[in-house]
Amino acid sequence: MRKRNLLLTTLLTFLFLSFTTTAFAAENEPTLNAARFGIFTLIPPLIAIALAFITKNVVLSLFLGVFSGAFILSLNGNNVFGAFYFGFLKVIDLIQGSLANKWNAGIILQCMVIGGLIALVSKMGGAKAIAESLSKKAKTPTSAQLITWLLGILVFFDDYANSLIVGPIMRPVTDKMKVSREKLAFIVDATAAPVAGIALISTWVGYEISLIKDGFSSIGQQVNAYGVFVSSIPYRFYNILILAFVAFTAIFLREFGPMLHAERRARLTGKVLSDTAKPMVSTETTGVEPKEGIKLSIWNAIIPIGALIVFSFSGFYFNGYRAIMGGENS
Questions:
Q1: Cα 251 to chain centroid, rounded
Q2: 15-26 tens-digit pLDDT
Q3: Domain range list for the chain
Q4: With helix as H, strand as E and coil as C, how does 42-91 read?
Q5: How far apart are CA 82 and CA 96, in angstroms?
Q6: How does pLDDT run across 180-217, given as a tens digit for each residue?
Q7: What is the value of pTM for the model shown?
Q8: Could you give the count of Cα atoms lying within 13 Å of 308 in the half-sphere of its Cβ?
Q9: What is the pLDDT of residue 19?
Q10: Dihedral sign for Cα atoms in the order 107, 110, 115, 116
Q11: Residue 272 has pLDDT above 60, yes or no
C-alpha cells in the first residue's frame, strides 16, 4: 500500500512538473514572479493539498509542494534536469534559512520551554491536582468540554502556550468524562489561534500591527496600526464563529461527520482513542506521574504557569517599548 502511494505521488508530481516545464519554456526575462507564472503559482499548494488527501502523509505532501515551487522558480528554458537539481538545492537553502530564522528559532525554543514547564508542573503534582479539582466541577461531558473551552479562552496570550497548557491539564478530565481525544483536540485547537487572533494583547498583535503599518505605508497612508487592528476584530468571523460553534456543540452535544462517530465510540465503549489512532505524543510525555511522596497542590501549577504569564506580559511590554524607542516596525 505504501509503495503504491509513493509511486502515485511520484507520478502525479512528475506530471505536474512536466506540464509546468512546457508552459514556461518560452519565458526568458520575467519581471515579477506573479506576472511570469500567473495562475500557475497555485500549482505548489494544489500539489500539497492533493497529495495530503492521497497519501495521508502531511510532511511528504508539504515537502513536495515546496519542491514543486522551487522547481518552477528554477526553470530556465527546457533544462528540466537542471531545474530539478537547482530546485532541490533551493529547497535545502530554504530549510536552512528557516532553521536559522530568529522568529522560527524563537517558536521552537518557546515550545521547548513551555513543554518543559508543563512536564515540571506534572512532576510536582500540580497538573494532577488541578485535574482532580476540575473533575469535581466537570461531572458531565458537557461541563468537561465547557471548562476546556473556558480555560482555552483564559490562556489568550499565545496559541502555542494555549495548546501546551490546556491540553495536558484537561486530558485526564475529559478522559474521565468519556470525551473523545478527537473532540479534546478540536476544542484545544479552536481556542488557541482564534483566541490569540482577537485578543487585545498577545504574541500575534505586534506582528499583525507591523503588517498593517507596512501595508498602509506601501500606499502612502499613515494610520494608527493598533487602532486598525482593534477595529478589525468584529470582522474576524472565523475566530468568533468557531468559538461559538465549540460552545454550541458542547452544550447541545451535537456532533457532525467523523466527530459524531468518535464521540459515540467514546461514550458507548469508553475508548477515548480509536484502535487505529497514532498519538503524536509519546506515553512518556502524557503519562508523567508526580514525584513519589509529594503533596498534591494546585499551587504547584498556579505559581509556575502564573509566572509564565506575568513574564510573558513583561516581555511584551519591554519588547514593544524597545521597538518603539528604537524606531523598529515590529
A1: 26
A2: 444 444 444 443
A3: 2-100, 126-326
A4: HHHHHHHHHHHHHHCCHHHHHHHHHHHHHHHHHCCCCCHHHHHHHHHHHH
A5: 21
A6: 999 999 999 999 989 988 988 877 777 788 788 888 88
A7: 0.68
A8: 24
A9: 45
A10: positive
A11: yes
